[in-house]
Amino acid sequence: MNCPRCNSAQEHLRTEYQGREGDELVWTVFYCRRCSFTWRDSEPAESIDYAEREAWFRADPDHPEKYKHNIPPADGN
Amino acid sequence: MDMETVTLSAEARAVAERIRNLRDYLELLAEHGQCITWPETVLPEPDIRKVVVAAGRDAMAGPAIVFDNIRGYPGKRLVIGVHGSFSNIALLLGKPKGTSIKELFYELAGRWGSDKPLINRVKPDDAPVHENRVEADINLYDMLPLYRINALDGGFYIAKANIVSRDPRDPDNFAKQNVGIYRIQVQGPDKFTLLSVPSHDMAQQIRMAEQDDVPLKIAVMLGNHPAMAMFAATPVNYDESEFAYASQMMGSPIDLTQSGNGLDVLAGAEMVIEAELLNNKRCLEGPFGEFPGSYSGIRHVPLFRVTAVSHRTDPIFESIYIGKGWTEHDTLIGLSTCAPIYAQLKENFPEVVAVNALYQHGLTGIISVKNRFAGFAKSVAMRALGTPHGLMYLKNLIMVDDDVDPFDLNQVMWALSTRTRASDIIVIPNMPMVIIDPAAEIPGKGHRLIIDATSFMPPDPIGGDAKIVSPPTGPEIDDLAKYILRLQKEAEGR
Ligand SMILES: [Zn+2]
After folding, report:
1. Is B290 considered catalytic here?
2. B349-459: CATH homologous superfamily?
3. Among positive and negative, which fits the CA dihedral B51, B52, B53, B58?
4. What is the mean pLDDT of the segment spanning B441-467?
5. Cα distance from A11 to chain B (closest Cα, Å)?
6. CB distance B406 to B391 below 8 Å
7. In which element (H, E) is residue B399 found?
8. d(C-alpha B269, C-alpha B316), whole Å
9. Does B350 have pLDDT greater than 70?
10. pTM given for the model
């Protein structure tokens, strides 16, 4: 499994939480450490399938300079 | 000016005294059929989104919806649409459901200007919000049924919180405490980003903390007294407390206690998340489906770490649907957007009758005014653009006469059809503009539109002799309209 938004490989993903009902695992929430995307594996494909997601909504963590700062950090980094 | 507590009707006083927190309000709404519990099991996505969008279609009467059976979140509760309709707002103000928007507007406008803050201090040990306290192994997913609001949001948002912060250079000063609404994206079990407009108090405080390398502590209040959500977004001066303001508008005390990190918080909140800014740390945030109905992009946004969580037993997570209008966001902030513009205009122009700035936080406004002479309404429009909210938001202004109810769009269309000349349409180019307006050519800058749809007045020679039909109006006709509805209901039941 890769990140649905930036296509980063498994090693960059983190498991956030597992929704359970009794002994049954219902879904898992993941987080991409590279692009900050959060998703649940039970969501519809339009939200979590890289191929189905509209291209505008992809993220490019290799080029962080593409994204504006809300408030630039005081230390300039 | 000498002002005091507002005079409330007996019904409004009874409601103001009864409602001290979210649960009291949900109970009141339920008694009137305005809060329902969803009977079926839902998946967090896409089921919740579908249900709340359907409920939000009825801006006049849609109910709040409690979800207590969410797959994978056993035992957790979520409520959406608490401020989702004008009937819900009416009940909060002590009016019957179905009360017209115009009447609600006058009720709120009448409460504006009271300067008696009613704050009731509660010891932390006695505050319901501190019934449960988590200080280690914090996982927000363990405490809140988090979900994706719009299908292409960048993550799971906490979208209806009131956030308390203090000036990091003057942290003991109560007067410099700020309560605002900012969108929060969960960025891990105990981390989140908080997006603030660069000119707002919170952004100033973040800059100060990072420049001086001092801590910035905040408290995120969730599931609040319904007046806080309605009024915390209203622009008040930096030295005024939003708590005081909310209590003034409700005409009843607000219960305040201390959070573990030393801020004033609502004693009856469902949850308070205490957090601190991670100085100079940023994280990618967005997109998020915002109130103009379009997604904002991705930005680097300040990151916070959760230090503790206090919550009531079995807390209710209050959320909101935001997106292409009409949504709960429009009902929530609509009337509290209208009231200050009206009050500020009235100071210079007592001829102003009513202000309807309900649409997308006032991107379109309709102002009714007693016209004095040709062109008068245009001057009033210019003044409206100079009010604190008008400065950034009032993009399209429609001016109508005092015989037109600006909240009745059929009447507004009548005025546009019969009283507008193309030469009464003014475009003011290259004006300041709210940055998330999707129509902007350059974010933050754009054009303003004024349509003067008021009648012709001397010295205007054209159309001055139009004789207007005056159909009967007033309480008698209002009562007849209600009587007709009753007859229709009876006819249906037969
Ligand atoms: Zn990613």
Report:
1. yes
2. UbiD C-terminal domain-like (3.40.1670.10)
3. positive
4. 83
5. 16
6. no
7. strand B396-401
8. 10
9. yes
10. 0.93
* Distance, first Cα to last Cα, chain B: 57
**CA distances to B220, B235, B245, B256, B333 from B240, in Å:** 19, 10, 8, 16, 19
Q: Strand pairing of B254-258 and B264-266?
A: antiparallel
Give the pLDDT band (50/70/90) at residue B3. very low
Question: Once rounded to an integer, what is the mean pLDDT over residues B423-450?
Answer: 89
The whole-angstrom distance between B397's CA and the closest CA on chain A is 30
Does A30 fall in a domain?
yes
Q: Is B301 on the interface with A (CB under 8 A)?
A: yes
pLDDT, tens digit, 9 for 90 and up, residues B29-64: 999 999 999 999 999 999 999 999 999 889 999 999
Give the C-alpha distances (Å, rounded to integers) separating B33 from A71, B16, B62, B85, B413. Answer: 44, 19, 10, 12, 33
In this predicted structure, what is the pLDDT of residue B427?
97
Flag if B280 and A74 touch (Cβ within 8 Å).
Answer: yes
Which position has the higher pLDDT, B232 or A31? Answer: A31
In a domain, A14, yes or no: yes
Q: Is residue A33 part of a domain?
A: yes
Interface of B with A in 270-299 (CB under 8 A): 279-285, 287, 295, 297-299
Residue B1's pLDDT is: 36
**Residue B109 near residue B344, CB atoms below 8 Å:** no
- Which regions in chain A score pLDDT beneath 50? none
- Chain A residue with the nearest C-alpha to that of B302: A71
Rounded CA separation B87/B359 (Å): 18
What mean pLDDT, rounded, does chain B reach?
A: 92
Total number of domains constituting chain A: 1
Residues of B in contact with A16 (CB under 8 A): 141, 188-189
Query: Contacts of residue A29 in chain B, CB cutoff 8 Å?
Result: 141, 146, 156
- Top-confidence residue, B5 or B195: B195
B207 contact residues in A (CB cutoff 8 A): 71, 74
Are residues A73 and B45, on separate chains, in Cβ contact within 8 Å? no
Residue A73 belongs to a domain: no
Q: Mutating which of B69, B156, B191, B300 best tests the A interface, going by the most A Cβ atoms within 10 A?
A: B300
User: Which percentage of chain B shows pLDDT scores above 90?
Assistant: 74
- Bridge-based pairing of strands B271-285 and B299-311 is antiparallel
Whole-number Å distance, alpha carbon A54 to ligand 1 midpoint, is 15
Disruptive mutation site among A25, A36, A42 for chain B (greatest number of B CBs within 10 Å): A36
- Asked if A73 lies within 8 A of B297 by C-beta distance, the reply is no
Q: Of B55-59, B197-201, B202-206, B281-285, which gets the smallest average pLDDT?
A: B197-201
- Options 2.60.120.10, 2.30.110.10, 3.40.50.12780, 3.30.479.10; CATH for B10-319 is 2.30.110.10
- B71 min Cα distance to partner chain A (Å): 7
Instruction: List the domain boundaries for chain B.
Output: 10-319, 349-459
